[in-house]
């Protein structure tokens, strides 16, 4: 499973050149820690730690990955949420041997911003749901995402649902369909749109 995850990450973040440090490597789903080993990276790779938080139906899951990865958006946090679904994907990079040894807490930015996204959630549905309320976006969430499909949760439970809500725009420009703990098994809808702003919150939302 780890080989598949690393291959997907390298597919999303293409190769570049640079120095080759030694980095700690490990991966664990549904856990905040993992058993790490120091290995030599290839030229141009960073020492990377990725922390993923996922909340669905009141259940909270944390997953972690440490590895050597090229051209990844370093020190970036990706948020996505609706009332029933929340995820946070934190990427931390460094370039010195063994520098990703520590298990750092991912930063929290829950300050509301000026954006609003039409939102909805429908369990057991692969059809795009129809928005029935507005969600106030937080932090760097600056796009609206509509998703429908089937996922494998970090505890290996399979769930199918459709939701719309806020998301960090980077995930629209370069969608990360496979996270490190949450896996998308079948994707029917993955579409990003511009959000509404507070002065225009009463406008009809157009797809």
Automatic annotation (TrEMBL):
<dbReference type="InterPro" id="IPR016054">
    <property type="entry name" value="LY6_UPA_recep-like"/>
</dbReference>
<dbReference type="Pfam" id="PF00021">
    <property type="entry name" value="UPAR_LY6"/>
</dbReference>
<dbReference type="GO" id="GO:0005576">
    <property type="term" value="C:extracellular region"/>
</dbReference>
<keyword id="KW-0964">Secreted</keyword>
<dbReference type="InterPro" id="IPR045860">
    <property type="entry name" value="Snake_toxin-like_sf"/>
</dbReference>
<dbReference type="InterPro" id="IPR050918">
    <property type="entry name" value="CNF-like_PLA2_Inhibitor"/>
</dbReference>
<feature type="domain" description="UPAR/Ly6">
    <location>
        <begin position="22"/>
        <end position="101"/>
    </location>
</feature>
<feature type="signal peptide">
    <location>
        <begin position="1"/>
        <end position="18"/>
    </location>
</feature>
<feature type="domain" description="UPAR/Ly6">
    <location>
        <begin position="115"/>
        <end position="182"/>
    </location>
</feature>
<protein>
    <recommendedName>
        <fullName>UPAR/Ly6 domain-containing protein</fullName>
    </recommendedName>
</protein>
<keyword id="KW-0732">Signal</keyword>
